[in-house]
Design brief:
The protein is an alpha/beta fold. It has a single domain (8-204), classed as Rossmann fold (3-Layer(aba) Sandwich), CATH 3.40.50. It is built from 8 helices and 7 strands; from the N terminus they run βαβββαββαβααααα. Strands 2-3-4-1-5-7-6 form a 7-stranded mixed sheet, with helices on both faces. α1 crosses α5 (161-176) and α2 packs parallel to α3 (118-127). The longest helix is centred in the C-terminal third of the chain and has 16 residues, at 161-176. The protein is globular, with a radius of gyration of 16 Å. Catalyzes the release of premature peptidyl moieties from peptidyl-tRNA molecules trapped in stalled 50S ribosomal subunits, and thus maintains levels of free tRNAs and 50S ribosomes. Monomer. TRNA binds at residues 19, 70, 72, 118.
């Protein structure tokens, strides 16, 4: 089934050079790749509390957004742009880091809880519910990766080398699926993205 096309893609992260390479900024990484592919560039839009890149999909306008409000106020930026351009929640895709998925895993879903993610929590509050799409990029959890770090410290540090490679591969798969995602061909994308590369590698001994 074809859903509504996506008009707003939001990458979650924290502004500032000290956060650029941290796990919590995975959402920024992907929307920057997509903006580049679409031939668009980000510019600070103070009225939307973020950096915005405008593009078109099949002749229709669409926007990419990097909130500059820090993670726990992401909803302020998302709701400001969505209200101004009259974009419905089901036409919004939020790209974010996911502790409950291992590096290399990706899941696409609509709605659901925020699982303690401060960015998602604030967006749900600002939009009045969870009815937007989410592209969940696995970063792993410190316990699943055998680390003793607290979660807050973990997400604000760069991934280790092997984790970074797996995340890069996941981002590449999302990049390949960009056109289908923007067109709203979500069921097909799910079938492609949800194949678990971690399990496949373990099964083949890779």
């Amino acid at each position: 089934m074809i859903e509504s096309s996506i008009q707003l893609v939001v990458g979650l992260g924290n502004p500032g050079s000290q956060y650029e390479q941290t796990r919590h900024n995975v959402g920024f990484w992907l929307v920057e790749q997509w903006a580049s592919r679409l031939g668009s560039a980000f510019h600070l839009e103070k009225s939307f509390f973020g950096e915005v890149a405008k593009s078109r999909n099949h002749g229709q306008p669409m926007w990419l957004l990097k909130p500059q409000t820090y993670m726990n106020r992401s909803g302020q930026s998302v709701s400001a742009l969505a209200r101004f351009y009259k974009i419905d929640p089901e036409q919004i895709l939020v790209v974010h880091d996911e502790l409950d998925l291992l590096p290399g895993q990706v899941r696409l879903k609509k709605g659901g809880g925020h699982a303690g993610h401060n960015g998602l929590r604030d967006i749900q509050s600002a939009l009045g519910g969870p009815g937007f799409w989410r592209l969940r990029i696995g970063i792993g959890h410190p316990r699943s990766l055998g680390l003793q770090q607290g979660v807050a410290d973990f997400v604000l540090h760069p991934p280790r080398l092997e984790e970074a490679r797996a995340i890069d591969e996941a981002l590449a798969r999302c990049d390949q699926a960009m056109d289908k995602i923007l067109d709203g061909n979500m069921n097909k994308v799910m079938g492609e993205l949800h194949r678990d590369p971690v399990a496949s590698q373990q099964a083949t001994g890779a």
